[in-house]
């Protein structure tokens, strides 16, 4: 069984405390992760602090060339990395392969965009004075990443930060650390200098506390639950660190009476069953206009029946959930909904494939009193809510403290514009269930987070703007 360690100042650091890493498809141990604790986190932060002057003091071209080598090495090792992702997260291999492409695309994008970072020179109101701004890297960055995208969430944060000249301490999820360790190995091979990218493994509470309180850390970037995001924000407030947070969602997915229903079903499958529903932007409440209910549900259930549940290594469409807690959450949503009057149209229980596999489930007659309406289910559960008109629909869609992603299907251009404007969500998919690329600003309104990743905004998040007023006398 392989042991996995932390990377601090360019060296793999061992420790005595170990955690099991399990394959969620069969609960078999696939390795041991050594926990470096708060001492390890502190050493990693110091290493990042020491590496900052040289890395940030070099040219953008120098950093860009190294990042491009990292990108190429990841692409070259796509097969091996995809297998690691599937083994530790459970997602189907085809999705892991897509994640390698998606995750690598951030590195290429930020490596290129960093060459274009520039300041401004203003027309000064004072003839003797020159006024300008320059952009500079913010400093040491803590990046805390989730298990559901073990590669893409790491590259979306670290490559943006590193491209700007920041140095990074990464804490990957203890459930899926092997992908990050592989990424770090490739980063060293690509020429990333010691201390520029550090990876600390172990207990998330203890390491998270160090990463969010240490005075050397100038920025925290986190993807995960709203609860933990709020805690990190509180910790960060003592030293007024910059924060970027990608938190929970409660995405509405709307099927209007003028939709192409087959496309809407396919879009819902793309959004809802990606990673077995374990993504922050997965459709979580499906609103169907009354007049198309029967036709839409028939098409949907037919499509769901064709999906293959199974081990991600065996050509499946839906893999396991990450752990028992995830199964219990789904069960509690279903139980609560059925008790309050919902109808079970398909699925509803754990699959015979294995204890962490859940049947794709559709519940109709969902109301705003149910957990399935108010909470992210993070699994293959489709709660159906009927609506009559656009006004009542918008009110229901926005009736949530979250605001990450929303989707709707319609062929009417006036409606498309009106609904897009009124949805209180950071990302809106119109006639599509797939919205994620390196190019779009990824992030949410309300309690779904602060800031944007990817796009040009994702780079700005790691830069400070400095104003210089120069009296030439
Ligand atoms: C997430 O669910 O956390 C990210 C999904 C994405 O980047 O598409």
The CATH topology annotation of the largest domain reads as Aldehyde Dehydrogenase, Chain A, domain 1
CATH superfamily of the largest domain: Aldehyde Dehydrogenase, Chain A, domain 1
Report the total helices. Answer: 15
Helicity range: 25-40%
Give a written overview of the molecule:
The structure is a single chain. With 473 residues, the protein is α/β, with parallel strands linked by helices. The protein has 2 domains: 3-247 and 448-471, 3-Layer(aba) Sandwich (Aldehyde Dehydrogenase, Chain A, domain 1); 251-437, Aldehyde Dehydrogenase, Chain A, domain 2. Helices cover 39% and strands 23% of the residues. It contains 15 helices and 23 strands. It has helices at 37-57, 60-76, 78-89, 93-113, 152-164, 178-190, 204-213, 226-237, 261-272, 293-305, 324-339, 371-374, 390-397, 413-422, 457-460, and strands spanning 3-4, 6-8, 11-13, 17-23, 28-35, 120-122, 129-137, 140-144, 167-171, 197-199, 217-223, 242-246, 251-255, 283-289, 343-346, 361-364, 381-387, 402-403, 405-409, 427-430, 445-446, 449-450, 463-471. The strands form 6 sheets. It has a 7-stranded mixed beta sheet with strand order 15-16-17-14-13-19-20, with helices on both faces. Helix 1 packs across helix 7 (204-213) and helix 7 runs parallel beside helix 8. It is globular. The protein starts with a strand and ends with a strand. The model has no long low-confidence stretch (mean pLDDT 98). The chain binds succinic acid. Succinic acid (SIN) binds at residues 148-149, 152, 223, 279-281, 436, 442.
